[in-house]
């Protein structure tokens, strides 16, 4: 039977991963330590004391993992390049052995007919740069430019599509704002400095990437933000939250300015951060925007509390999960129409920017059956309903060019360690055995049929 919902010819079907979450081999071939090595080795910061030391051992098993992508019939693979493998101390000598790994990976993908879509920064800042101040220092953005140049010199002839940053909002506000991620700092001013310097890093990368013939974009985490009630306070709070989460990076890049309401709210915290010419460089045209979508956010107005130990509590809203809405193992509400609603709104605001869904997926309590199989009906339902939502938005004219399932493999879920599994492929961390889950088989079928 032909699929009821067909995607356009050439629609990209892919899967995504990130370096620290899967590679392991943290001390191999000259790699330097990243902020995540230091953070995960600090007792009490990651659930169960998990670290990325071994992860999925992808550094050694990459060829078999690429075979899996090929067996799934996917046309694209999004991975990230670890800055500390390429420049171990962040801003010094280039480590050729680190680049060799990504060279092999890119060639391995091309040999299998799979499009490599590397992200240049997915959160593993070299620790040496954090020791010199990290993202709150403007010089970190300059160092990023030199790292990007090294990568482009080696891979620029073979990569068709680059992503500069993954979810800079998370790097800035979770890494430097509430400290739940590396490097674990808790200061709203640092978070704002970090966010501007991440934007500058993107800006510095753009002209370097433009020396290639590839498409270039950036990946942002987004959410469909709605008020918890119809009352004016919650509606106002939802507007603030929408600018804080969805606008803070998208607006500078796509409009050349920070969102007004949020900029006013931060007030003097922003003084001296933005220099002449910054926003012009940050808003250089991109070829696509990558959107990572997981949840709708229901927002309730609260008086901001500046005195708690979490500086993010100063923001005048809290997110809540409404009663009766099903949630994933992360506690995230499952509301697929949030994705279509978000895409329609985003596309109306930024009509000329093509969209790639660079991440979407869900974590569940997967069980391996006695026969070794993994049935994951909840993940299949999440996948199908969110793809239907993407399709629905496209039917209204939203320009979505591709979809990447998060994630190819179960992996190191940051502060949650290995306890939360997002993969369409199960990983037994004791044996490193990979098992295709039922959702992986279903996703392969959708990709093969170009629809569902
Ligand atoms: O695992 C992360 C990924 O690294 C970035 N986006 C969200 C995923 C799930 O939390």
Description:
- The structure is a single chain.
- The protein is α/β, with parallel strands linked by helices and 452 residues long.
- It has a single domain, classed as TIM Barrel (Alpha-Beta Barrel), CATH 3.20.20.80.
- It has helices at residues 19-22, 35-40, 58-71, 83-86, 96-111, 127-131, 138-155, 168-177, 188-209, 232-255, 260-266, 278-282, 337-349, 377-395, 438-449, and strands at 12-16, 76-80, 115-121, 161-166, 215-227, 288-301, 317-320, 355-359, 400-406, 425-428, 433-436.
- The strands form 2 sheets. The chain has an 8-stranded parallel barrel with strand order 1-2-3-4-5-6-8-9, surrounded by 6 helices. It has a two-stranded antiparallel ribbon with strand order 10-11.
- A hairpin with a 4-residue loop joins strand 10 and strand 11 (433-436).
- The longest helix has 24 residues, at 232-255.
- The model has no long low-confidence stretch (mean pLDDT 97).
- 5-hydroxymethyl-3,4-dihydroxypiperidine binds at residues 18, 21, 167, 292, 359, 406, 413, 422.
- 5-hydroxymethyl-3,4-dihydroxypiperidine (IFM) binds at residues 18, 21, 167, 292, 359, 406, 413, 422.
């Amino acid at each position: 039977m032909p699929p009821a919902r067909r995607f356009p010819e050439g629609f990209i079907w892919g899967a995504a991963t990130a370096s620290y979450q899967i590679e392991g081999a943290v001390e191999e071939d000259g790699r330097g330590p990243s902020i995540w090595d230091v953070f995960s080795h600090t007792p009490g910061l990651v659930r169960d004391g998990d670290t990325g030391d071994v992860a999925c051992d992808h550094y050694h098993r990459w060829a078999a993992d690429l075979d899996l992508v090929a067996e799934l019939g996917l046309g694209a693979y999004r991975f990230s390049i670890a800055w500390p493998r390429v420049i171990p101390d962040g801003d010094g000598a280039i480590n050729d052995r680190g680049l060799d790994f990504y060279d092999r990976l890119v060639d391995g993908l091309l040999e299998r007919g799979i499009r490599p879509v590397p992200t240049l920064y997915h959160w593993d800042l070299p620790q040496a740069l954090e020791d010199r101040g990290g993202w709150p220092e403007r010089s970190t953005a300059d160092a990023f430019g030199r790292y990007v140049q090294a990568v482009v010199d080696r891979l620029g002839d073979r990569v068709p599509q680059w992503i500069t940053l993954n979810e800079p909002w998370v790097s800035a506000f979770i890494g430097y704002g509430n400290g739940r991620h590396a490097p674990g700092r808790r200061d709203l001013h640092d978070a704002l400095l970090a966010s501007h310097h991440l934007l500058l890093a993107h800006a510095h990368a753009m002209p370097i990437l433009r020396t290639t013939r590839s498409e270039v974009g950036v990946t942002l985490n987004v959410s469909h933000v709605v008020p918890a009630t119809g009352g004016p306070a919650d509606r106002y709070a939802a507007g603030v939250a929408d600018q804080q989460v969805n606008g803070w990076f998208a607006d500078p890049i796509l409009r050349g300015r920070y969102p007004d309401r949020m900029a006013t709210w931060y007030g003097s915290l922003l003084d001296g951060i933005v220099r002449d010419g910054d926003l012009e460089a940050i808003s250089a045209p991109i070829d696509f925007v990558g959107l990572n979508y997981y949840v709708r956010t229901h927002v309730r107005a609260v008086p901001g509390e500046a005195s708690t130990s979490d500086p993010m509590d100063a923001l005048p809203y809290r997110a809540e999960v409404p009663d009766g809405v099903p949630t994933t193992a992360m506690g995230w509400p499952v509301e697929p129409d949030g994705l279509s609603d978000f895409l329609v709104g985003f596309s109306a605001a930024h009509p000329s920017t093509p969209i790639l869904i660079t991440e979407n997926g869900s974590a569940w309590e997967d069980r391996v059956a006695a026969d070794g199989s993994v049935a994951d009906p909840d993940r299949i339902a999440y996948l199908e309903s969110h793809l239907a939502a993407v399709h629905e938005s496209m039917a209204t004219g939203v320009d979505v060019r591709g979809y990447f399932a998060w994630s190819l493999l179960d992996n190191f879920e940051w502060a949650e360690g290995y306890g939360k599994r997002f993969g369409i492929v199960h990983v037994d961390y004791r044996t490193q055995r990979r098992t295709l889950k039922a959702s992986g088989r279903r996703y392969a079928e959708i990709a093969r049929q170009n629809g569902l």
